């Protein structure tokens, strides 16, 4: 499952939430710090971890 990063517009708290792709489309998480519903998706840098086989 992908991990999505959110930012609270009220207190500025940045937090992560693990969601299925289908859940992410309709997700409206509350801020875990202040409980606000004014939360926006905060794009995070993508990092791919690979393992080279020799």
From TrEMBL:
Classification via Gene3D superfamilies: RNA polymerase ii, chain L
InterPro entries tied to this protein: Regulatory_FmdB_Zinc_ribbon, Znf_C2H2_type
Positions of the C2H2-type domain: 6-28
Segments traversing the membrane: none
Key words, A-Z: Metal-binding, Zinc, Zinc-finger
An example Gene Ontology molecular-function term: zinc ion binding
SMART domains: CxxC_CXXC_SSSS
Pfam families associated with the record: Zn_ribbon_8
Record's protein name: Zinc ribbon domain-containing protein
């Amino acid at each position: 499952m992908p991990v999505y990063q959110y930012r609270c517009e009220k207190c500025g708290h940045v937090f992560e939430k693990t969601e299925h792709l289908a859940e992410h489309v309709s997700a409206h998480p509350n801020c875990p710090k202040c409980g606000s519903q004014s939360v926006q998706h905060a794009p995070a840098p993508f990092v791919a971890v690979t393992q080279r086989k020799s």
